[in-house]
Amino acid sequence: GAVLAAVLVGFDFVAPFGFDPVWARSLPFAVALPVYGLAWGWNGEALGLRLRPRQGWGWWVRAGLVLGGLVLVVVGVVGGVGLLVGVELPPPVEAPWGEWVVWFRQACLQAPLVEEGTYRFVLCLPLLALWGRWPAILGSAVVFALLHVRYGVPAPDNFAGGFVFAWSYVASGTLVVPIVLHACGNLFVIGSQALYAWWMMG
Q1: What is the CA radius of gyration of the chain?
Q2: In DSSP terms, which residues pair with 174 in a beta bridge?
Q3: Mean pLDDT over residues 176-198, rounded?
Q4: DSSP string spanning 92-128?
């Protein structure tokens, strides 16, 4: 399992893909699913493929708000330190409406599905079996953050988000929770970028 996970995650990590083509980035999950299914006896609980989280959806709505706030605190502290040491604010994104729509599709629909499938399902399960909960969560978060460094967006929220997504996958017992959290997080980023662009450019 660990060797297969390393190969599949490595494929997604080094392949010349961005968000597209989505079928190519779905390959790690598609390959791992039957292998892991056989290894774990198609146990939805063990695979994290149940539809309802262990704690129920109400608990995760509240937890998601708290976790989102904590991620904002981390980003705010790091960003504040950056401003204090002289790091300039990035320029606003200038793009036509159609590009914002494409960005929404890629970031809020495609990325949560393919990246949670790869960096949580494919990567976390073997790490859980080998080293237990916290090493699996930390390892998943680190690799997820490095992926975004490779993409040229080395923001602190990528590690914080990856940690939250991995923890939520392990704690909830379902891949649905980190997919939803990931989509909501990216939606917040896009909304913030849009408001920042509107404010800076009038």
Answers
A1: 17
A2: 49
A3: 89
A4: PP---HHHHHHHHIIIIIIHHHHHHIIIIIIHHHHHH
Helices 123-131 and 133-150: crossing angle, nearest 10°? Answer: 140
Q: Distances from the Cα of 135 to the Cαs of 42, 143, 157, 159, in angstroms?
A: 24, 12, 19, 14
Q: What is the DSSP string of 31-81?
A: HHHHHHHHHTTT-HHHHTB-SS-TT-HHHHHHHHHHHHHHHHHHHHHHHHH
Report CA-CA distances (Å) from 81 to 113, 130, 153, 162: 33, 37, 18, 22
Burial of residue 157 (CB within 10 Å: 0-12, 13-18, 19+) is buried
What's residue 16's pLDDT?
A: 66
Tens digits of residue pLDDT in 27-59? 999 999 999 999 999 999 899 999 999 999 999
Q: Are 129 and 39 in contact (CB under 8 A)?
A: no
From the list 136, 118, 84, 163, the residue with the least C-alpha distance to 8 is 118
Beta bridge partner(s), residue 49: 174
Report whether 88 contacts 109 (CB < 8 A). Answer: no
DSSP 146: H
Residue whose token pair is 């706030």: 69
Do residues 28 and 118 lie in contact, with contact meaning Cβ atoms separated by under 8 Å? Answer: yes
Q: Encode pLDDT of 60-87 as tens digits.
A: 999 999 988 887 887 788 778 877 887 7
Query: Position 201: which residue type?
Result: M
